Amino acid sequence: MINIRSKDEPVGRMAKLMAGIFYFMAKEMIDKLGEDKGKEAIREAVTKFGELRAENMKEEAVERGLKINAETYAKVKDMPSISWESDPHNPGDITYCPMHDMWKQLNGEDIGALYCEIDKILYDKFNIEFERPLCKTAGDKCCRFVVKDKR
């Protein structure tokens, strides 16, 4: 049983649904192809999806006359931050993620972690150094995003 309700905030609800379809598709790939080939296929798909998203955001940045950097990434990112919660004392620490919530409900945090790899792809395309020393899919209390423009 999963906990999604029609009255839930729409962006969070859609994020959970997206996380759910990702989980079931990824799990089928692993089950049908085996762990190694399945995870390889999932990573390739996530990479292609991440590259597509980044190119679209970069196209918007060019249309708006913006440089490709961390400041611009925040202006043109395609996934809203509504429903994600961060630590008010450290905004780089995401304390609630609706996608993680879904993967946890499905007992699939390990599979969800494969999707989380998309962040590095997106940030790289915007010339941003990215580290995530903590991640909720690894059992940490938050996802810590450390980002800065590449020099």
TrEMBL record:
One of its GO terms (molecular function) is hydrolase activity. It comes from Clostridium moutaii. Keywords: Hydrolase. This is L-2-amino-thiazoline-4-carboxylic acid hydrolase.
